[in-house]
# Entry
Amino acid sequence: MGSLNNKRVLLGVTGGIAAYKSAELIRCLQGEGAEVRVVMTPAATEFITPLTLQALSGNPVSLKLLDTAAEAAMGHIELARWADLILVAPASADFIARLCHGEGNDLLSTVCLASHSMIAVAPAMNKHMWENAATQQNLQLLREHAIHIFGPASGYQACGDRGEGRMEAPASLCTMASNLFVSGLLSGKKIVITAGPTREALDPVRYISNHSSGKMGYALAQAAVAAGATTVLVSGPVQLEPPERVKTITVESAAEMLNATLNEVGGADIFIAAAAVADYRPASIAEQKIKKNDDDMFLQLIKNPDIVATVAALPKRPLTVGFAAETENLEHHATLKLHKKNLDLVIANDVSDAEIGFNSDDNRVLLVQPSSSKALPTMNKHLLANKLIEHIASLLDTPPKIPLS
Ligand code: PMT
# Structure
């Protein structure tokens, strides 16, 4: 698998002769590990059939904004949320102009408007259209809106002209897309991340646990490794594949998670506690399956060690980041956790909202630090993980906290 492993790329195809190269581009992106979905503008379907792109991408191709069947399955808002990257290739002069002015008059422009994901466009047009002042002004505006411009390349054009305006080759576009995810921000750094739930055994067949899927922690591990960090993931039991290039240690209980974390955290620069660790465990584990004899049953629970607080109290502590899973008064409770556990940053999420938090693909968080807080909008956990890693990397420059005595 390549550097787009587990990344979701929404390929937007607009009308232009270079649309035939989209077929090869899909293959390149998939070769780098990306899952690809395609949205075509009506003009694009004049150059290449949706059937071809559907067969290659392995997913239905989305064509219309006002399509009741599509809206029920993967409508424009879902597509906007699904993507880690929207890559428009080829991007016609007309589409660039419409994107630049925030128009939403077809599915692709609407998805771009509704998305918090990264967007990149690969211009493809005649050289005179490319050189036109209006096109250049539009591109400048897109750059100011943090939209990436890939290319164009220069050479012979379908119309017989020679010059700038050809769409970049699919392999180059793929490399440019990969580079968006590889920042090198954490080169030479070691990061340890906990993820998933813990299981606290009651007897040989039963346990106490929670609904954490591990998606948030695993996305952070992928973002950390993509940023160049030596990454260790200490994971409770989840249904996810271990991320590429990440040392993944699987554990069951909070006690095991603590041991694995302490074995790895020495020499680490950053520790992120994304796991939903059980606060309590049964005082004793029955050796045999507990029998159903009585109408009532009482369990005695004892407190588990707090892993993130233990790391924050180490004499040589890494930058220590905790999460706060709250159902009310997000900022207030997160601030209490920040101070009580002596953390550098708390990432607070509202786990009462089924659309975000536990076991969902999206999350919406509040970043709480000793002297500031910042809300981020709802977004896909992979995109959020990239933003969190970027933010956490920027905190490495601040002086380390002193462990509480
Ligand atoms: O896994 P997903 O389905 O993707 O869901 C993501 C998530 C909701 C689990 C994640 O975003 C999240 O909020 N993780 C922390 C969950 C949690 O246990 O929060 P808390 O508020 O109870 O704990 C505060 C912090 O202390 C957390 O960083 C937690 O990892 C840590 N902790 C808690 C108890 C304990 N014994 N040891 C700890 O280290």
